[in-house]
Amino acid sequence: MTRVRLLPDDGSLQQQLVHIIWTNAESPVEGMSEFVRGAFSLLLDIYKMDCEQFADPKKTLYSTLLQHITKLPWEAKAKYPPLCALLPYVGTDMVLDQYAEIPSHLLKCLSTNHLSPYATELYKCFIQQQRRELCDQCDSPTELHLANRWAKRWQSFLLEALMSDVALLQNNSSTQLLPCTLQVFPSAVEPLLVSLDPVTPGHLHAWACIVSSHRATTGGSPWALQGGSALHTLQLALGSAEDKVRLAALNLLCCSQKTKDTPSPEELSLMKTFIPQNLNCDSSPFRQHFQAGVKRFVVRIRDGCLAHVKAQKGKKKDGADSERADVILDQGIGFVEWLNQLPYCYLASGHSFQRKKTALLLLAAVLETCTDTWSPERKKGQPPANMGSLINYARQRGQWNFFCRTKQLLLLSCLEDSTNEIRELSAGLLLRFFPPSFSDDIAAVLVRRTKQLLCRPRVQEGQMGALMIKVLLQKSHDQSVDLWLNSNITDSKVNNSKTSCVVGFLVTELQEHYTTAKNDMMLAARTKPIHSVLSALQRCLLEPPSRVCDILDRSLATELLGLLENISLLLLGVLCGAQETPAEEKDVPPSFSDMGNAISSLIAQTCGGSQGDMEECVLLSEEHSLVLTCCWVSLKEIGIFLGSLVEKVLAESKPTKCLLRIEELTRSSKIFKDILLKCRHWGAVEGCCVGFIKFCASLLSSSDPEFREIPTLMLKQGLQVLQSPRSTSVTRRAAGLPMLILCVLSAEEASKARPLLASSIHTLLETARTPLAPRWDQTLDLPQVCAVHTLEALVRNSGLGVAVLQFASAVTILSLTLLSSPCWAMRNAALQLYSSLCSRMLGQRPSGEEGSPAQHGMSPAAFFFHYAALQPFLLGELQGAAQDLQGPSAEARLHLQPSLYPVLTLLAQLQPGVPDSTGSLSHFLTPLLQLAASPIYSVRTMASKALVAMTPPSEYMNILIRLTADLPNARERCSHNRLHGQLLQIKAVVHRALCSDSAPSADLCEVLSRVDASLWLATGAQRCPLVSAAYLGVAESLRKRSCEAYLNKLSDLLMYELQTPQHGLQIGLSTFHQRAVQFLCADVRWARQIWDNFSRSSSDLRLTLVTWVVDGRSLQETSLKELIQRVLQANLREALLSCCVEYRSTYLAALVRVMAGGESPLLQDPPQSASLEEPVVRDCLEMLLSDLESQSGGPEFLSHALQAASLLLSHSDDMSVIQRWCTILEHQGSPESPEELRLACGEALCLAGVLLMRRGLSAHSTLADFRIRLINTGLYLLQDQSQQVRIKAACFTSMVHQAIRGGGQRSVYLMQVNQAMPLLLDLLLVECWDTSGTLEVLLCHLPPPDLRSLLRDASETGCASLYEQDEANVFAEPSVMSAHLLPNLLQMEEKSHKSSHLAQSLIVWAKKSTPQVLDSLAVCKELLPGEVLTPVWLALLMDPRFHSTLCGLFTRAALLLRLVKTSDTHALCDPIALHKNMLDTFRVFGQNGVHFPPALTAAVAGDLPL
Questions:
Q1: What is the tens place of the pLDDT at every residue in 1393-1436?
Q2: Exposure string over 282-305, b if 16+ CB within 10 A, otherwise e
Q3: Diameter of the chain by CA atoms?
Q4: DSSP 206-275
Q5: Distance CA 1270, CA 1253 (A)
Q6: Residues with Cβ < 8 Å from 1325, sequence gap 6 or more?
Q7: In whole angstroms, how large is the CA radius of gyration of the chain?
Q8: Does the CA dihedral 738-739-745-750 come out positive or negative?
Q9: Peptide bond preceding 1025: is omega within 30 degrees of 0, i.e. cis?
Q10: Which of 2, 62, 132, 915 is the most exposed place for a label (fewest CB within 10 A)?
């Protein structure tokens, strides 16, 4: 052992090691941060042993490192891993004492995506170390004592994170911080819950997260917490309007420490209520979490039931235990049966995508959990070995029939859904779980449908046919294949396997499509579009479980390859106008104009017209769209299919025997090359690249050197094409040539040195640096421009991102240099390359809360350490620009330097606040300070940001003293540009330097004094408003440190300037007004003064003031808010008479904001009546309603006008005005109205609708009519396509519910939309059941029951166009609405004996509806399918109107049946025959793929009394 210390505190070795660690801590290289942390921990450990060896108790290095860490800005990711390593050596108390800001910094980090893992790890280290220290300090401390000690330090921090409005922070705290907290301190749940009130907004989510985390980590019962009130709180959370609250509550309901913890009856009941109410959520993450939660719940049921089944087979139990086990088994099996049936009720066409997607996910959860289907490709999630015993137990009781024919038919109908996700999910369930083969009738109908779809021009329908043929292939037995292939494939072409026959059929079909296209392209685009067969081939040949080498022989492979080659040449010929002869051998893509002219010429030849006749229309014709779509989609599919085919062939082939020879692979490479170099359509190029990367990767990884040479040769050819002069126009950033080069380089093996990448970038750099020709043509593609675009593609590609960093400096210098090129295309390409390169070098920009820093996580020192060549270059650019600004008389002059702003942008994005130990960055400060004089506004702004990034913290005050010393006095001559730039730099540095609340230093006092002395800059003596605005920005930044006298003096001057009339147009005056208003209104005294003078202010100042209100700054002070409300009400009539639409719209928005209650007006009580005179209210309402009725002013103004009118309506009792307002709501709430207006209708319901609903609930018949109309509007808005509109309507329902229920609570519990719908219907029934119009409102929401017209429309409907017109409201679900309405209609009938008017209305309706209902039921009997599936029936199952029409029909039939049973309408029809007809139709429909909502099924079956 040496007698000399290894790491003395003043030794060079220690300093060098620390320097290396800090320098590499921010490295962008993957894995470097982990390596640095390991090295740092090792250094600390060695230093500890060194100090112990030499008895050094001070251990100075620890405190030095801690001091350095605390000085780093919170944004630096290098701050946190070293602190985790240092924590055990210094202890938590020392760190928290010296670094008191750590909780707030952790909150900021948890709100920023790239810093949240570091913050989470640091928090875990803190609490683990804290527990160790507490246990060392006390002997056998209790868990509650430990939790209370934790709470003193961290409880407020954790609760703030859990209740934050920032989604990322809230999610990180609930999923990361909370579980580890309760693992380390299990008793922390008690102090956390004590601090929460579930009624308070934000607390309910925190409550659910805490309780679910407690249940998952400790296994404790959540229902025993808080004196048993947890179950009621859970019900509130499950019905909350917020997705995150409901998900947290679901997690609480589903989680358990043991999977065999069987849910209690209460939990089963809650889930049965919760699941149907959450099937149509818009959020995709919600659906995924919903499925995962339900699956966990079902796993608990399954494992618990399995345990009871196993126990029953074992030792004998007494009667009580056996009976209890039977009850648990019946409950669990019954719940799974219910959950299995539920999704099928909502899979019919006509339901929303959201509901169908969720239903399929839930069905997948059931089938994955409760069947014994084995999935060989899965490592986890397989069924238990004894699953069969539970399935048999359930089936003995007539349950768990998961795979019956009717369910199979319903899933088959989903194969023609308009969305790819629904099709894939349903096909996956059919293939994975259902019986291995279809019945012959199903197979025959599907074959016919598949052949039709493969010949449809719509891409979507072609994809349906391709998916259907894949399902058919795997679900048909061998004997049925020959029948639907027409036995037209000879054995010489293919093997005898089923898949080989289908592939042979598809190849023949593809040949037929090609022949048709060759003879008549227009006919092929309509009836033989090629791409659908290519999709089908890919699905049948390349997707599991197929093996290409077992399906194809060499002859068929050669035939298929030749066919692909011919098709690609034909389609490329069509696009370039050379259909008769193949496209020329030049690698030159036609321009978009050439492609358009070629297609137009083809159409003219086919239709017999002239091309000139078609040039008058700007829009593409239907024929043009058909041809273009056929060409580009087919080319895309060729690329994808060919690449995947080669990849799979090479993967399956033996080295000595390959299905594809070098000749076929060379031909394949030419197909890719032709598509990429001769087609400019980005869809075709992008799709082709998917297959080309697979093609190149397979060849480059091959053991055959000839195969590996093919991509290399293509790369050389691509670079040669790039370097050769072009003869086409500049479009689409060099078309597909960069993509060809990119694909080859992306396929190169990442583990090797990437020689192809290095040589290609060298070639591209040389080409880009080549000087332009003396007479270059700016209308043609230039090799230099194409090289820059190719470099940008390489830099932007994620697969090459790290590999290209070694060339980053050279490429950056090139891009900045080329910004000075005389060629516009070159400058444009260079700017795109530079932007992509900055993102790659600096890493992904952090995302988090609004207002988060715009900088990336790399400091200037670390950036120039990794890209050393850039430091002298960037510095030279700045110095050159700064030098050019200085003229002979020290006046700034304009000299454009194209690279200046990009350089400043790059520097501004670096992480500020990091110490510069070497001082190498000090050279940047002088030119950045000089750039304050730039005549370009954006340069001055960006220079101020770059100055902050490049200035070390130790220089902040020096810079401020230097800048403020240069501020001129009122008599000095000065440059406005320089002065403006100086003020911007002062503000930026002040904002960074004063981010901590420390006592003002002497230097800061000097800065404040100089700013005070420059007060004249805010007055009219300084003639530039932009400079005055910049000075106010500085004053605002220093406000907390400034004295009261200075603030009063400045405010007084501002008041004078704002009240002084301005003459002429002044640039920047509005900006100055905004800053002045913001500054004055930050102090209530001055805010009251400026608002008192509102009516005497100029129009520009009034606009500024109301804009300030709209920004939400007036709602913090109650007295000020009341003053602003009075002022705005007093000047409302004058504002509505203004000619400026912007002022009127902003004014109304401000009025609504102050009157409706601030940030969350819907959570407050309805607005109180204010002191407005009746004539003023009447006149203002008249103007507002007139504008709304005439639709003048645009959607934004009209939305504000509607809300303002709703607020004023509370001051009016004029029934005609209320009627006009209701009419406007009904009109603007329709699906055809703009979303902004529909949202305003929801706001209007909350602002005035609640008051009208509360005002004399039954005192006035007219008011009752209004209530019906308001509820009807609410019902429509609850079905709106926009989630925001639905939420507003749910808010209205929640407020009305609370207003009627009473209770005196100020905050409103906002319920979920799907809870609001039945509640609003119940409200209509309870309050308005005997009012005229109620029955009509209920019936108007039912879908029409006319089956005959539906069948007639279906028979006439063909493929009318390439694209379909969406419905105005794709979210509305008539079938679901029918299920909501039926119970209410039946209750209306029950109450009819209490009201003669209602009874008469029902009788009139019955007489009018009976013929149509009976006729439609007769049509149902005609449609009833037999035992064999027919094409007509399958088409009906796939028709989106069929299911909703049936639901509307049976809802009316159920109401009619009730009426003829209980009222004097027996003559209309026989109730027994009607009921029997309904039951028979229901039963047969149910056996053939038609599932109805549970409420409708129960009513027809008799579970609901008829």
A1: 888 888 899 999 999 999 999 999 999 988 888 788 888 899 89
A2: eeeebbebbbbbbbbbbbbbbbbb
A3: 116
A4: HHHHHHHHHHHHH---GGGGGGGTHHHHHHHHHTBS-HHHHHHHHHHHH--SSTT-PPPHHHHHHHHHHT
A5: 8
A6: 1334, 1384, 1387, 1388
A7: 37
A8: positive
A9: no
A10: 2
Give the global pTM: 0.90
By C-alpha distance, which of 1062, 1149, 1055, 1167 is closest to 1106?
1149
Say if residues 210 and 217 touch (Cβ distance below 8 Å): no
Would you list the DSSP string of 1179-1240? HHHHHHHHHHHHT-SHHHHHHHHHHHHHHHGGG---HHHHHHHHHHHHHHTSTTS-HHHHHH
| Residue 712, H or E segment | helix 705-723
From CA 352, how far away is CA 348, in angstroms rounded? Answer: 10
| Short-list 426, 407, 406, 408, CA closest to 416 | 426
Please report which confidence band the pLDDT of residue 1359 belongs to, taking 50, 70 and 90 as the band edges. low
Which residue, chain included where needed, has tokens 């579980």? 179
Tell me the pLDDT tens digit for each residue of 1458-1494. 998 887 767 788 888 999 999 999 889 999 999 999 9
Encoded amino acid at 1077, one letter: V
Torsion of CA 627, 629, 635, 636, to 10 degrees: 180
- Encoding tokens for residue 115? 């810093």
Alpha carbons 1277 and 1241: distance in angstroms, whole number: 8
DSSP character at residue 111:
T
Checking if the pLDDT of 191 tops 50, the result is yes
Which residues are CB-neighbours of 413 under 8 A, at least 6 positions away?
Answer: 347, 348, 349, 1434, 1437, 1438, 1489
| Phi-psi region at 798: left, alpha or beta (left = phi > 0; alpha = psi -120 to 50) | alpha
8 A C-beta contact, residue 1224 and residue 1268: no
The SS3 call for residue 112 is strand
**Looking at beta carbons, which pairs linking 614-623 to residues 24 or more positions away fall under 8 Å?**
622/1361, 622/1362, 623/522, 623/525
What's the Cα-to-Cα distance from 428 to each of 280, 448, 695, rounded to whole Å?
21, 21, 27
C-alpha 783/C-alpha 830 separation (Å) is 13
Query: How many other CB atoms are there within 10 angstroms of residue 472's CB atom?
Result: 21
- Among 610, 667, 602, 670, smallest CA distance to 631 is for 602
Which amino acid, 973?
R
- In whole numbers, what is the pLDDT of the chain averaged over residues? 87
Q: Of the candidates 790, 698, 783, which has an alpha carbon nearest to the alpha carbon of residue 741?
A: 790
Confirm if 551 and 541 have CB atoms less than 8 A apart.
yes
Residues facing 240 on adjacent strands: 1311
Residue 486 phi, psi (nearest 5): 65, 15
Phi, psi torsion values for 1164, nearest 5 degrees = -105, 170
CA distance 394 to 390: 6
Task: Tell me which residue of 510, 673, 666, 461 sits closest to 583, measured CA to CA.
Answer: 673
Are 224 and 168 contacting, i.e. CB atoms less than 8 angstroms apart? no
Torsion of CA 1428, 1433, 1434, 1440, to 10 degrees: -160
Quick one: the chain helix, strand, coil %, rounded to 5?
70, 0, 30
* Residue-level pLDDT at 848: 47
Over the stretch 695-714, which tens digit does the pLDDT of each residue have? 999 999 998 899 999 999 99
Half-sphere exposure (Cβ direction) of 663: Cα atoms closer than 13 Å: 4
Q: What are phi and psi of 458, to 5 degrees?
A: -70, 130
Q: Kindly tell me if the per-residue pLDDT of 852 is higher than 70.
A: no
DSSP 8-class letter at 891: -
